[in-house]
Amino acid sequence: MIFSTITIWAALALLAGALMPMQSGVNSTLAQNSEGAIWASFISFVVGTLSLFIVAVLTRQEWPAMASLKQAPWWAWTGGLMGAVFVATSAFLAPRLGAATMMALFVAGQLTMSLMLDHFGWATFPQHSINLWRVLGVVMLFCGVLLIRFN
Question: Mind telling me which residue stretches traverse the membrane in this protein (predicted)?
Answer without folding.
Answer: 38-60, 72-93, 99-120, 132-150
